[in-house]
Amino acid sequence: MRAILIVFGKEFRENLRERRTLVSALILGPLLGPLLFAGGLSLRIERGAEEGERPITLAVVHGERAPNLLGFLRQYGVRVESVDYDDAAARAAVRSHGHELVLAVSADFAAHLGSGTPAALLLYADSSDPSASGALSRVTALLGQYASLLARLRVVARGVDPLVLSPLALQDIDVATPASRSVLALGTLSYLVLLTMLMGGMYLAIDATAGERERGSLEPLLTVPVRREALMFGKILATCAYMTASLTLTVAAFAIMLRFTGLERFGMSVNFGPLVGLTVVLFCLPLVPLGAALMTIVAASTRSYREAQTYVSYLTTVVSFVPLIVIFSGLKDAMWQLAIPVLGQQMVFSRIVRADPLSAADFAVPTGTSLAVAAIALVILSHLLREERIVFGRP
Predict the structure, then answer these.
(1) Phi (first) and psi of residue 138, to 5 degrees
(2) Looking at residues 388-393, what average pLDDT do you find?
């Protein structure tokens, strides 16, 4: 144990002088990542709020054919702009973003309304334009309201109670809490936490194996009268220290910056205070030795520093993408997920952010499996250290 601590202290102090390690472990990931995430989320919220309040300009072709419809739209703040387009010109205007929406009134619109048959309206829109999605949904809803109003007036004119058009009285009951709704906006938070944690120790894991070998210092180091496992475990312990520091700084930065995103404007609350941040760090800590061991194995198995950078980057990308796969696949929570490292932490992370109650299994199962896999990885690494190709980098 004393040899492990000596190697740990040496590696930790040396990497404090390594500017690249400090920048990646303690600045870029922990500070820049949360800043960009919180800033982007805040801008998205501001844009969403402005979208709901922004007046809509609707280009209308042959609006004189539907004066009552245009009056209805104006009552709800829609600015009507008369244009003279045919079908091709209307498509071109929307496609070139000359107009977000173009509404064309058919020539027989009034005749169909008078006869009680459906009257045709053509609404031109570009569904691939995200800036026009809000206006499209609002105009579509208003046209639906106008159609419902006309239907009710028709049945009243025929002496029929308009309630016959509403056979169901549906009431939406939302049981979501403000904290649970915030998961919709904070779903990718676990991906960034995991990525920055791995980035915190990536360069140290590479330098302690492939870097030492390229500098020619690994072979003399392994000849000292100390077990090879003790030397490598000391290096891994230093990697774990930097990963833990990166994890802690990242979570602390998120806890501070998320308070200024303005989620409360949409009925959400950020359940990410100091206690929640500490809980997230404790749940992610078992992944630290696992990630350090896996990155060291991959780096030690390569033949050069550049090759180690490539393959360790692949590893960090694959591991950190697990939360995104879970989020976008719509995978529902299940007990078996707790037994899979990273997947179990992702499941518990979502519960923490939603302020759901946690059980003992939520902590014990992911922690136990992650530490067990980390122990297996350390055993594999100890066997690799006895191979000549690890020391000399030759196949």
Answers:
(1) -70, -45
(2) 58
> Strand 56-61 and strand 102-105: pairing?
parallel
Is the entire prediction scored with pTM above 0.85? Answer: no
Res 340 pLDDT > 90: no
CA distance between the termini of the chain: 32
- The answer to which of 13-17, 344-348, 350-354 has the lowest mean pLDDT is 13-17
The predicted model gives 235-242 an average pLDDT of 88
Question: What's the mean per-residue pLDDT of the chain?
Answer: 82
Task: Kindly report the number of other CB atoms within 10 A of residue 147's CB atom.
Answer: 14
Cα angle 155-160-163, degrees, rounded to a multiple of 5: 85
Q: How far is CA 248 from CA 121, 278, 312, 319, in A?
A: 57, 8, 22, 19
Enumerate residues 6+ apart whose C-beta is below 8 A from 311.
298, 299, 301, 302
Note whether 244 and 29 are within 8 A (CB): no
Buried b vs exposed e over 352-386: b needs ≥16 C-beta within 10 Å? bbbebeeeeebbebbbebbbebbeebbeebeebbe
Q: 301-313 burial by CB neighbour count: b if 16+ within 10 A, else e?
A: bbeebebbbebbb
Of 315, 243, 258, 255, nearest to 280 by C-alpha is 255
Q: What does 125-179 look like in DSSP terms, one character per residue?
A: --TT-GGGHHHHHHHHHHHHHHHHHHHHHHHHHTT--GGGG------------HH
